[in-house]
Task: structure prediction
Amino acid sequence: MRLQTKTVHTGVDKDSAYNSVTTPIYQTSTFRFEDVGTTKGYDYTRSGNPTRRSLEENITALEEGAGAAAVATGMAAVALMLHFFRAGDHIICTHDCYGGTERLLRTYRELFGLQISYVDMTDLTAVEEAVRADTKAFWIETPSNPLLNIVDIRKLSDIAHAHGALSIVDNTFLSPVNQKPFELGADFIIHSTTKYLNGHSDVVGGAVVAKDRKNAERLQFLANAVGQGASPFDCWLVLRGIKTLVPRMKEHEKNARAVAEFLSKHPNVRKVYYPGLETHPNHELAAKQQKGFGGMVSFEVDGGIEEVKHVLRSTKLFALAESLGGVESLIEHPATMSHASMAPEQREKAGINERVIRLSVGIEAVEDLTEDLGNALAFVRDAGMRRPKPKAGALC
Ligand SMILES: *Cc1c(COP(=O)(O)O)cnc(C)c1O
Result:
């Protein structure tokens, strides 16, 4: 089956009692035993639930792994993954990872002695130099958030494996439609299903997918032991969302490209970050490694913090909100919102300045989206806050 067919069918058919075409929501904490010592496959929802199993089978099929655990949030997925390690283990993490991931790694360093090195993973020499005898994993996120830097999953996985370390890829930004980390050598894939997989901004959820069976079994063991499993209703919503993943991703990308091109030409925009633009520094790698460029666009307003705030306040369709990947367009300010939890030095090092605005481009009619952004940016100009535009070469 092709991916688009799998999104609709895999794992869905669970109702042998009445042949329901959609997966029932098995909203139960516990399951009656057939006899002493005999169940129909489930005994307690923390350990397993048919609706959750449907979602796990579906995501496993999309990523072509051996098994998955569907958990309560994307951060629960990150935490579940970190339970594979023990005190003193060293993890090399991309320097511009998701803010919540950085916060949890920092907390686990303090609580449990995990050792973390943050490295700019576009620099493979720096990655090699950061490897130590006790390095157990590379934590890879590409495209990064919010600047959409692309790193080479294949090369990084090769380096990790050469040193006996695992390659873990957070694939939230692209979804399996646009990136297949297992084909590029990854051992684990992390998802915040809150984002594109669900796609409708009405649930928080996460998943970890393992490439090999032994790790998949360990995932199930840990998800039950720690008690992180997603609720049946949330799993049902995500499963429902995934059925339209492929057509949604196409619309997101079409709109994001048009928005990126619109912003690139706007006099009040200093810089545009979109890997689909040929001017993006990692465009070639993105084109080679990815199957699509996705729906996220970031840009720098050509002005100071007041101009940035004007834009954030002035859009009507782009809602000022965190999160991403839903059908509706969102606008946010990484420095004070999504990345506020990141240590300020870390944020500076990652190049996230206060002029950066991040867009999650939805699937509305694109003319309405560019008009909305145009109005918000025109407001800056009309208020007399225009600054000289830098040379065209500075655009990326
Ligand atoms: C949102 C996000 C997370 C965390 O997911 P939640 O569902 O919010 O807990 C992790 N990684 C990335 C890349 C994200 O965008």
In short: Residues 115 and 342 are 17 Å apart (CA to CA). The chain has two domains: 3-242, 245-385.
